[in-house]
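step 4 of 6: structure.
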Amino acid sequence: MNLRRLWAIIVKELRQLRRDRITLGMIIGIPTLQLLMFGYAINLDVRGLAAGVVDQSGTQAARVVLQDMFATGVIQPVLTLQTPQAALMALRRGEISVGVIIPPDFERRVTEGREAVQVIVDGSDTSVQNAVRQLAQLPVGERALRVVQPVSVLPLYNPGRRSAVNVVPGLIGVILSMTMVLFTAVSLVRERERGNLEFLITTPVTRLELMVGKVLPYVAIGLLQTTLVLWLGIQVFGVPVRGSTLDVYLATLLLIAANLSLGLLLSTRAQSQFQATQMSFFLLLPSILLSGFVFPFAGMPLAARWIAEVLPLTHFMRLIRGVMLRGASVAELWPEALVLVGFTMLMMLLAVARFRKSLD
Amino acid sequence: MKADIAIRARGLTRRFGAVVAVDHVSLEVPRARVYGFLGPNGSGKSTAIRLLCGLLTPTAGEVEVLGLQLPRQAEALKRRIGYMTQRFSLFDDLTVRENLEFVATVQGLSRQAVPLRVTELLQDYQLEAVIGQLAGTLSGGQRQRLALAAAVVHRPELLLLDEPTSAVDPESRRAFWERLFDLADAGTTLLISTHYMDEAERCHRLAILASGRLVADGAPAEMAAALDGRVFRVLAEDARQAHGVLQSLPGVLSVAQIGRELRVLMAAPDGTLEALPENTLLRLEFALRAAKLAATLQQASPNLEDVFVDCTQTSRRVA
């Protein structure tokens, strides 16, 4: 590898990037927009569900129970109804998501220790269902009912159960998977499409110089994006960084390398920029869905887990949550780091082997 | 290999699936000369050039370029050749200067040499006025000069040009050819493909390709002289009708209308008395008179287009 030739390729790449305003905009725009969208919109703790109330007992104790339920913020009374049938109708029409029904014999049921309050839920949305199920476990109406909870759960690391805390570290990974793979894949394919490659391969430039020279500028861009997301995450959502900043960047660097090498491999396969884009999106979707970013890894069937283990984002997700939220170091999480390093080396090897310096 | 031969190919063949793009081509290109590949589209010119600079691996045959064996020593060859592609292959989104700086650096010029050489090229190729302009916004002629400048940055011994003048006006083409001869005078060997007759005529030596095969080669003037006695000019009152009559005569290879005149090319003589030019002239005249067409006929001196038609028509008949 000749350093002057490598440098020439990097400079060329940066000059081209500087003139490509749309890509430049995407480098800053994608992370910012995504962070704000995901940070605000992906909220797994459901709040303010529209509730209809049917209080057929009209007692003081029932009113206490209802007050406690509303105080959780999960449900919010929008309708007062006379009969359970009216509540069902309202639920079907979509006016309410939850119906709280207190039967006429409420107090007798409480005394006898039977179920005293019925909550009907619009189960067509599972997250609503889950939220209301949790409602049933909250110490609602303790004052009136003197119920003792048999199991107590102590949530470490994210006691407020705020989604942003969970989403932002993972979002770094999702954004990097989206931009890094795409940028590298497209950048080599573009040179082939424009005919630049036909000229480049008649020069003494080697395959490795070409690939590394194309990748290095994007490493810098990846780190820039990480910094942006971290800064916004801390400023806007108050996301904690419990581990060392160095470890955060180290983990990120591992993911950037994995994604860039993957992008290079795609570029040796794709014939047009359109194909390159398609390929990277084909990989992006499973990355987002299976990596543990959206759904917990533990709930997935075995086959999905195997696929997830192959995706770099899965391992990054474990690394970054460990570092940022649990204060772990990359060294403590070495198996995940090792997988990312291995992935990068394998992809790079395949890419260099597949890329031919001839037109055969 | 003799020192005055830059390229020697024997039985050079390249297949793409079932298609034979280059079919057993053997040729020798002398050093410090402009050697042309003439042929219609799809005749294998571009493929031949790519084979000769190591961009494509031959299916069969031997190639020796500047004393190096291909494809084994293709990488070593790349330092000694310049290649100007058919399509503009520099970076549209870099300026003229940035493009040249990039090429100079990857071609291995030293840190001190790069700015000097770039300045020199900008002067030589009249690009000083557009130094800071993006290559994508240049005119056809400017782009072509930039592409040539980039191809010769490292002063290659061999320059391969694949239809370099297809996108420029006649004046730029003339100036371009002056530059090519300057390079040849300075010792560079040039291999150029074209489908323009006037360009082919300028080459020191020429190879005519038809469907992947080399059907003729030699100096353009000699190749034309070889057709002496086979070309006739016919000035007929009704050129279209005369065209039809002449076309159907035995021994007539092609009839082309040029203005009001017809240019008739006869097949290669078979040694009979009948094939002598004087007798051919009489035979053509007789045929026209029999069709009641008034015409004057005379022998003409053959040109390169006649050579080209002769080669491509003959090879088509054989095929």
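step 5 of 6: annotate
 - Residues 299 and 305 of chain A are 9 Å apart (CA to CA).
 - The first strand of chain A starts at residue 49 and ends at 55.
step 6 of 6: archive
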